[in-house]
Design brief:
This protein has 137 residues and is an alpha+beta fold. It has six helices and five strands, in the order αββαββαβααα. The chain has a three-stranded antiparallel β-sheet. The chain has a two-stranded antiparallel ribbon with strand order 3-4. The longest helix is centred in the last third of the chain and has 14 residues, at 101-114.
Length: 137
């Protein structure tokens, strides 16, 4: 019997959605949008806001940066080939940063949903309990 660690390592728990169409970008093309693993979301949240100290006695300055293009670039795949649309992350961010905020924002919301980042802890526990069936504790 496999150890719990091995079972966790082998689990396929990152969700995805196929057949995503973005006719404004590529009429007729189909994309796969994936959720992102925990490490990518933690990095996103860590980059989202930065605090810097200025030595002039002015205190602390907080900068908030949007990284939606980065998240979308990491989650957008060509459904036919299974390859990332933007294997070069910097190039993907540069391209997506110049595209429609509505489209990039909508894809970001989908990635967030597929990553279970749009549910609170209680909802996640309830969903996990349902996935494992009644009688599990």
């Amino acid at each position: 019997m496999a150890s719990l660690k091995d079972l966790i390592r082998q689990a396929s728990d990152v969700k995805y959605q196929d057949d995503v169409e973005i006719p404004e970008w590529a009429p007729g093309a189909r994309f796969r949008v994936t959720g992102l693993p925990s490490g990518d979301w933690e990095a996103y949240h860590n980059k989202l806001s930065k605090m810097t100290r200025r030595d002039q006695g002015a205190g602390i300055e907080m900068t908030i940066e949007s990284r939606k293009a980065e998240i979308v670039a990491k989650a957008l795949y060509d459904q036919e080939t299974g390859e990332l649309v933007f294997p070069d992350l910097r190039e993907g961010i540069a391209i997506l940063s110049k595209r429609s905020a509505g489209i990039v924002g909508g894809l970001f919301v989908l990635v967030r949903h597929l990553s279970d980042e749009d549910r609170d802890f209680t909802q996640k526990v309830k969903a996990a309990e349902e996935d494992f069936g009644a009688g599990q504790s």
